[in-house]
Amino acid sequence: MIKPVTGDEVRHVVFDIEDEKAPGLDGYTVAFFKKAWEVVGEEITIAVQQFFSSGKLLKQLNSTLITLVPKVQLPQSMADFRPISCCTVLYKIISKVMVNRMKVSLQQLVHFSQNAFIPGRKITENILLAQELLSGYNQSHLPKRCAMKIDLRKAYDTVAWDFVLAAMIQFGFHTTFVNWIMECITTPTYSISINGGPQGFFPATRGLRQGDPLSPYLFVLVMECLHAMIQFHIHQDGAFAFRWKCENLNLCMLSFADDILLFCRAEEHTIILLTYVIQEFADMSGLHANPSKTQCFLSRSAAELTEEVLNLTGFQLGHL
User: Fold this and answer.
1) To which H or E segment does residue 35 belong?
2) CA count, 13 A, side-chain hemisphere, 306
3) Degrees (nearest 5) of the Cα angle 115, 119, 121?
């Protein structure tokens, strides 16, 4: 994972990036680097290798242009926009080199409840499993069940950097590799694209950039921490009630990138425990559930618990 970066490795990464990717503040596209590789390839390779040998990233390489993409037809506030980070191509090369090395380890580190971005896994497997777990909720003769669809508020943008650091150390990544990652995610400066031109120049204090190749994989590790915390509290508690037919699999969570589904039996103690873990995770990671968008689904056999569950969680009632 920390072996020296070769010229072939850099070239492979460059030609693996899609030509349509938006350029960063410097305006250079990956198509330019591909076309001019015979001229600029050696200097690009040296620049990338210099980062991995020194562990330091030039401010110019990590300057980022934020494009605000509307999430609704008529946006009224900043909350109605999704910030997409346009990183420089040189930074993306560095980032993808680390991603390619990191992906090899994820299959062993990440529980099967997460399938997004994991080599050899398909997110459709979790979709099919979720459909199976949510089937029969309208049948009153089946056991009482509860599912929570957790919507994380500004998920990528609010991750605490110290939590990412602690997660990578806990998962056993080499100190040098961790330092490379932290140099990449903690040193960006931002400008916002307004009317086609960059405005402002400011640093960040938290968050992972939507547009950085590293971000999805680091977020997977953060979500794995949530899964580990839930499992720890389940085993410590001893009275957690798994959803019907899930106990043998030890299954209570499915993750779809930044969308989370939690499953359990519909009973007070278990729901309180899951709500507590969600809040504990939020306090540590910076990732808070959005109460107005997070939903609880109760089977018909647990309909009499609806008001109690909503009061315990503060979430909305969902309908299948």
Assistant:
1) helix 30-35
2) 11
3) 40
Extract the tokens encoding 44.
């690009």
Q: What is the DSSP letter of 301?
A: G
Encoding tokens for residue 109?
Answer: 């580190």
pLDDT tens for residues 274-320?
A: 999 999 999 999 999 999 999 999 999 999 999 999 999 999 999 98
Question: Which of 261, 256, 287, 278 lies closest to 114 in space, CA to CA?
Answer: 256
67 touches 5 (CB < 8 A): no
- Beta-sheet strands, E only, within 161-301: 189-194, 197-203, 253-256, 259-265, 295-298
Read off the pLDDT of residues 20-40 as tens digits, 9 standing for 90 and up.
888 888 889 999 999 999 999
CA distance 287 to 284: 8
Nearest to 66 by CA among 216, 219, 211: 211
Q: Which of 152, 222, 153 has its CA nearest to residue 181?
A: 222
CA distances in angstroms from 217 to 109, 165, 240, listed in the order given: 12, 13, 30
pTM of the model: 0.93
Encode pLDDT of 211-267 as tens digits.
999 999 999 999 999 999 999 999 999 899 998 888 888 899 999 878 899 999 999
3-state secondary structure of 57: coil
In sequence order, the 6+-apart residues with CB closer than 8 A to the CB of 310 are 296, 316, 317
